[in-house]
Every structure is written in C-alpha cells, then in structure tokens.
Amino acid sequence: MALTFIAKDPDTNGDNCPTVWVDQEKQEFVIQGWRADDATTADCLKTGPIPDSETVLRLPLRMAAALREAIDVAEGSALR
User: Fold this and answer.
1) What span, in angstroms and rounded, lies between the C-alpha atoms of 29 and 23?
2) pTM
3) Other CB atoms within 10 Å distance of the CB of residue 24
4) For 17-75, what is each residue's pLDDT tens digit?
5) Closest Cα partner for 7 from 36, 34, 31?
6) DSSP structure string for the chain
7) Do 11 and 66 meet the contact criterion of CB atoms below 8 Å apart?
8) What is the DSSP letter of 37?
9) Which residue from 48, 66, 65, 64 is spatially nearest to 56, judged by alpha carbons?
C-alpha cells in the first residue's frame, strides 16, 4: 500500500493527529482522527448500525483544506 501524505492538523497538540492520506491504489481516503465519544457515536447510530470493522472519527473543521486536497489527489489518480 502506497499512501500519499496530504496534511497533518496545523494546530496539532504534538500527537501528530489528525492526519489525512490518500491510498491511490485502493482509491481510498485514510484518516487519523480523534475517536468519537459515546454521545457522538450514539447520534451516529440513529442513522444505522456501525459495523465492527468501522469506527466514527472526528476531525476539526480546520482540516477542510486537507480533505479538499485529498479529494483532488484521489480524483486525479482515478483519471489515470
């Protein structure tokens, strides 16, 4: 798996989190973020179950530019 690094949270607290990558081979976003708290997870469960192989992550809005860049990278690799 070859990940393309996009960005780390510019206001990271030193834990190098959150981070965004793109896996161009698998055409997937890879996101490191804060595990959602129980209240957030409960709200998400209102729309359906969360499989054991998945989790709910939280990213700060200041990561929007990194997500836009990741989308551009992913869409560019999809066109190749």
Assistant:
1) 6
2) 0.79
3) 17
4) 899 999 988 888 999 998 999 999 999 999 999 999 999 999 889 999 999 999 998 88
5) 31
6) --EEEEEE-TT--SS--SEEEEETTTTEEEEE-EEPPHHHHHHHHTT----TT---EE--GGGHHHHHHHHHHHHHHHT-
7) no
8) P
9) 48
Give dist(CA 3, CA 42) in Å, integer: 31
Alpha carbon 4 to its chain centroid, in Å, reads 13
Residue type, 46: K
Listed residue (62, 50, 70, 78) closest to 6, CA to CA: 70
Taking a C-beta distance cutoff of 8 angstroms, is the pair 63, 55 a contact?
no
CA gap 9, 21 in Å, rounded? 12
Average pLDDT value for the chain:
88
Nearest CA to 59 out of 21, 3, 4 is that of 21
For residue 20, which of 5, 10, 34 has the smallest C-alpha distance?
Answer: 5
Give the amino acid at 32: Q
